[in-house]
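Hey team,

Filing this mostly as a record. A colleague (T.K.) asked me to run one chain through the structure pipeline before their review meeting, and I want the input and output archived in the tracker in case anyone asks later how it was produced. No errors, nothing strange. Just documentation.

Input sequence:
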Amino acid sequence: MRRQDIQLLTLARQGDPAARSKAGRRYLVGGDGFPRHVATGLEYLSHPSVRELPETACAIAESLPLQDLLELKQEDALHKAAAAGSPLAQFKLGVWMALARSRFAAGRTWLETAAAAGHIEASQVVAAVDGARSDRALDVMVESIQSSAAVDVVQVAVIAARQAREEGGWTSWSIACGWR
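Output structure:
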């Protein structure tokens, strides 16, 4: 580890909020002298001095794929980052809302917001859905994000199904997804 990295960690441990944020982000993504260690990154970013900052939510939402955000219970950070204007977070939130509990209209709104901000994948999804019949919109959305690095659609669908089952909404969710 480089001297400046050690200094950054020292400042972060001493409570410097800017250093804590920077170290947390570096651990989330790895690189710049830091190994990728998500748990440590989240630990730095969940400290009271930084956890409510919009940039902290953006760091979390932008650094992790959607399925990891959901498994690590970071949906709140995803919402905050999307509201703060992060196109990547808006894209992820749009996909999640469209898949989870079949809130397709709300998800589409976030996808359109991300597309308007220049997010390419969101633009492609919106264009694909616009060209589809309404009864195929969800299928077309899923097909259009198959190769996304930000979303593993199969893992996210499994998480959505699990949540629907736990919340008692499995039947309506599975019907909306075409799994009758």
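Quick notes for T.K.: The mean pLDDT is 90. The radius of gyration is 18 Å.
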